[in-house]
Every structure is written in C-alpha cells, then in structure tokens.
Request: fold
Amino acid sequence: MRRRRLELALADVESFLSMDEGWLLYEAARCSRSGRVAEIGSHKGRSTIALALGVVARGEGSVLAIDPFDAEIDGERGDERLKQFEQNLSRAQIADRVVLRRQLSHDVAPSVASGSLDVLFIDGSHEYEDVIQDIDDWMPKMVDGGLMLFNDPVIAEVGWALRDRVATRESKLRRAALVRNTLLTYYLPSAPWTFRDETRRVRLRVLLPFLWRFVQAIERLGTGGRFKRIAAFGAFCVGRTLIFVMLPGARLGQELSGR
Reply:
C-alpha cells in the first residue's frame, strides 16, 4: 500500500531516479530515528517527495532540500525547474514537510548542527571536488548510525570521490550497499572495524571503477548495429549479476528498520 502511494506520487515527476531508489529513500526516512532528513540536489522534486512521504509515514519530521536552482540543466533554466519542483510538491501534498534552501550545500552546512541528521541523500554537483566537499562538510552532521546515500556512483568523478572517501579503512561510512544507481552507507564513527567492514570496503573499491567502465562500454555498444545492441544487452545482464555478487543491495524491510 505504501509503495503504491509512492508510485502514484512519483508517476509524473521527471527524473532519472528509479522507483527502487525512490523506495529506498522513502524507507530510509520512514525508519529514521527522529525524522531529520536532508538532500543535496532536488531537481524537480522526485527524491524530495520520496523522502517527505517517508517522513509522513513515520509520523513526524521534515526534509531540508538544498538546491540553488541557478543552473541550466538540459535546456531548462533554474527558475523553470523551481516552478516544477514547487508544483510537484504541492501535487503530492507534502510541501509543508519540506524546507527549501536556495543555496550551495557548502554555504548551508555551517547552519546545520553537528550530529543532527538521520538521513542525507547527496545528488548535487557530480564534479570530484564538489562530491569530496559535500562528504567532508556533511558527514559531521550525521547522527551515529545515520544513513548517507549517494546518487550516480556510475559517473566516474562521483565514483572516484566515493572510492577516496568511503572505500578506505579510515572511513566512518560503512556497510555499503547498492540499490540501482544509489549507494547506501551507514555513518558509524565509533564502531570497531570488523571483517564485514573490510569485505565491503574491498568489494566497493573494486566495484566503483568497474561500474563506470561498465556503463561506458554499454553506451558504446548500444549505439552500434543490431549485433552490438544484442551484445550490450548480454553484457548488461552479466554485469548486473556481477555487481550484485560484488556488493549486495540493501534488504530494505530488515536492514533499515533494524538499524
């Protein structure tokens, strides 16, 4: 029932965020401890709606949406995207659960208290330095056991940033799991390093370069003739299997609610 409501709310909201990823955000917000949720990069509100509906299902909380809406994306001006964002939130009837900050994430960070966020979804600038800055600025804002989620690890610069900040023994972000094109991590600053942590770290370190090279290869094959398109489909099926083996996805019903 909850998933069906989410599907209906997201049906007409334009975005590359898949339904499985939307459900991940919904469940992350619904299962959060206090309902304090934030996102960096809102675009037209698909991820915002998923998080806000999760907060509604939880019973209390709000979503801090951070997006300056100042850049042109795919030919659309920032003010055009903002208008669609507001319309989409209104149609989903969750506008009262969302606080929009039209600023860069780096400028908003100082105003957010340390240890105050349960869930953070990062889908802002995909430049390496900007992803690094978002991680460094916002990781201290998380509660112990909070969730940091990263969209588009298949993009090379995002993947490299995650490799340098998450897939290391010094990282406080553990237990990485992949759901479609979103990487889920847990902020565990005081937990002892375990064999499970090391296994996930090694898998993630191997997986990230594989992901973006795999996507690039599929794109090249997919633009060719019939044989190349068939090869692309076969490679996609094999690649998805390998990805799941290397880094299993989150078990939403158990893992998130039991964290």
